[in-house]
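A favour, since you know our C-alpha cells better than I do. Would you make up a two-line entry for one protein for me to read? Write everything out right here, beneath this request.
=====
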Amino acid sequence: MVNQNICKAKQLLACSYKCATLNPMLKTTTIRARITPTVKTQAERILSSLGMTASDAIQLLFHQIQLRRGLPFQVELPNAETAKVLRDSRKGKGVKHYASKKDLYRDLGL
C-alpha cells in the first residue's frame, strides 16, 4: 500500500511538472538576464547535447528552487584565507609563471 502511494505521488509530481514545462499556455512570464557570450555559447552547447534548451534549464532550475525552497546547490563565501589568496593573486602576488607545462609539472614534482 505504501509503495503504491509513493508510485502515485511520483506519477502526480511527474505529470504536474510535465504539464508545467510542456504546456506553452501556462508559460506567461519572461525572464531576461545578461550573461557573457562565451558562457552562454558553452552552456547552450552542453545543454543541446543533453537535448535541452536554455529555457528548459532555467525552467528546471526554478522548479528546483521552488521544491527545495532555495538554490539546488551550495553557495558559499570563501573563508578568510581563501579570500586573501584570491585578492593577492588578482594583484599578481605569489603567482608563479612557467614557460611550459613541463616546467610547471617539474615544479609540482610530477
About this structure: The longest helix spans residues 2-22.
